[in-house]
Amino acid sequence: MRSSTLTSAFALITVATLGLTACGSGDATDAAPAGAAKSDKIPTQDVTSSVREDPAAAKLLPDSVRKKGSLRLAVTVGGTPPGSAYLPDGKTIAGQDVDFAQAVAKVLGIELHQEVASFEAILPALGSGKYDLGTGNFGVTDERRRTIDFVTYINDGQGFAVRKDSDLKKVTDLKQLCGLNVATGAGTTFEATLEENKGVCADAGKKAYSVKTYAESSAIWSSLQQGRSDVVMSTINGLRYAVEHQEGLRFLNEFHRLDVGFAFKKGTPLAPAFRAAVNKLIADGTYTRILKKWGTAPSAIERSRISPPEIKD
């Protein structure tokens, strides 16, 4: 079987693919592609080249996949590490998800043919068979588990950030957001949480908060920095990274933890192999090296699981 590498798609995504993630609900300025990020903001050290195929894990793949030697991977590029982002060349994609996908592919001895897609488009496309799996910091929720299978590799979740001059303190109840403009990613668990709970403001006799959704992290942060939004709800790891690398921002707090995993169509036969591959990476130390590279050690898991129940805390 061929040694595992990600195809040249990881390094040769054309600039034209930037438009795939530039279709947010804001105006043209809001939805402009993030483009290349500054090189000093994106770690580039190699933490996966030493990974070797594990025959026991590879044997768990369906015979058809082992014979073909490749799978179709959909990725979303939000523009802000530790999630996937473009390097200064505007083509190469780097991020925690990229490293995990590359490492797992090497363990399984397969190639991943990558295609960039918007976050909200990936999960439906898995069900249609367009892609074999997807990455994009997909949180494992009970709602998603009805139609999607997950193989977990980190624990992240929901949190908040504001400008440093904001009066908003730790958010423990969404009623604290009443009357504010809340920026978040389109098609995410954050958007779903905010929309499902809008009634809390009316119940409290307060003005509802407004949900502003964007397809790219860069647009979210621009809306906050420019005062069009009052608070951002996003991934805990993404928020911590953003406030560390942008002036004038403040991380508020974690709100709700979620497991994060590779996403597959429901009933996929691929899940056992991917779970074994992640557990192999945990055992051989590659997992720790990836987390250290992206500064996400607090998101470590002890073992990978297939579609675990949503964390309720």
Description:
The protein is of the alpha/beta class and 313 residues long. Helices cover 29% and strands 21% of the residues. It has 11 helices and 10 strands. The protein has a 5-stranded mixed beta sheet, with helices on both faces. Strands 4-1-5 form a 3-stranded parallel beta sheet, with helices on both faces. Strands 2-3 form a two-stranded antiparallel sheet. Strand 2 and strand 3 form a beta hairpin. The radius of gyration is 19 Å and the shape is globular. The termini are far apart.
Question: Main traits of this protein?
Answer:
11 helices; 29% helix; alpha/beta; 313 residues; three-stranded parallel beta sheet; globular; five-stranded mixed beta sheet; single chain; 10 strands
Q: Strands of the largest sheet, in order across it?
A: 8-7-9-6-10
Radius of gyration computed on alpha carbons: 19 Å
The main sheet comes to: 5 strands, mixed
Shape: globular
Helical element count? 11
- Could you list the spans in which at least 5 consecutive residues all have pLDDT below 50? 1-39
Please give the share of residues in helix. Answer: 25-40%
| Binned strand content | 15-25%
Which structural class should the secondary elements be placed in?
alpha/beta
Spatial separation of the terminal alpha carbons? 44 Å
Residue-averaged pLDDT: 86
Order of helices and strands: HHEEEHEHEHEEHHEHEHEHH
Give the strand tally: 10
